[in-house]
Design brief:
2 copies of one chain form a homodimer. With 144 residues, chain A is mainly alpha-helical. Chain A has one domain: Arc Repressor Mutant, subunit A (Orthogonal Bundle). Chain A has 6 helices and 2 strands. In chain A, strand 1 and strand 2 form a beta hairpin. The structure holds a DNA duplex (30 and 30 nucleotides).
DNA sequence: AATCGACAGTTACCAAAGCAACCATCTCGA
DNA sequence: TCGAGATGGTTGCTTTGGTAACTGTCGATT
């Protein structure tokens, strides 16, 4: 009978690693601004692209529309984001960051990049191959 | 102001990939035996090591004790697992798989290995570096 | 042997995520 | 122009996961 060692099994390892990295990453924005992961993703996406709709945010950040909806509301209550009804289609809303939102983003980004750089530096020469392998796997497991 | 592209950000990419792989993997044991991920982990761990306690399962599969507790109960109700009070310490229970549990495991494992092999094959020469990088990162983000 | 702190495991409670139903609006075709 | 289906977004329900409190047992110290 074939055997399987869980600790060497790829899906398990990816899952474990992803959780650990996410949890550590929370320390980057946690202490100052208490964000959830979906909120962070909405913030980052809006900062990256400027004004856009909830649908577009969800597509770019791989989040279900309910997750986006709730994260948007949370950021709105924090005054980091404003809604503005699109004039040519009143179903959708144009979302954009406010000045405080942009400022918070500006504070988080350098630390986020430093966090990532720290991991890549620890990988040293293995960083490059890892990123290539990641890209290949992302291609194999595309966004739904 | 520094910029961050979410789709290239390592924690995001790991998280996305891990979810996608896990979801695809559910198709491996999903259709025949409807297992959750924690249940699969308990099954795999018990099959790997034979009789052991819930605490030990949690440690090996990186799961919180409540997750283990619930997965164990679910497998017990399915008659895939039996509890047996340890005689030298009545706080802990010796858990082991039943014949049906072992049989289900035996059916799942080859397909799980094939699933993993498929991914690694698609990575081709990038597989080896990926695994090395994974190991390095696991070292950097150890189990709590 | 009585008690205190540690420990295995369960349960209760709360936060987060997904699914499905829903509302409002748009588009397209008769 | 009006009706049917599609679409952006929200809300309610259910499932899942985590934290903390609890139960019962052990080991050690007295």
């Amino acid at each position: 009978m074939s055997k399987l060692a869980l600790e060497h099994f790829l899906p398990y390892r990816l899952n474990r690693l992803s959780s650990a990295v996410s949890q550590q990453f929370r320390a980057v924005y946690g202490p100052h601004h208490d964000l959830t992961v979906p909120e962070w993703r909405v913030l980052a996406t809006l900062a990256q692209f400027g004004t856009m709709t909830a649908k577009a945010i969800g597509k770019h950040s791989s989040m279900h529309k309910t997750k986006v909806s709730r994260a948007v509301r949370a950021l709105e209550e924090r005054r980091w984001l404003t809604r503005c009804e699109s004039e040519h289609d009143r179903r959708e809303e144009s979302l954009s960051l406010t000045a405080p939102g942009l400022q918070a983003y500006g504070e988080i980004v350098p630390r986020a990049l430093a966090f990532e750089a720290g991991i890549l530096a620890a990988l040293g020469p293995h960083a490059e191959p890892l990123l290539r392998a990641l890209a290949l796997m992302e291609e194999r497991f595309p966004v739904d």
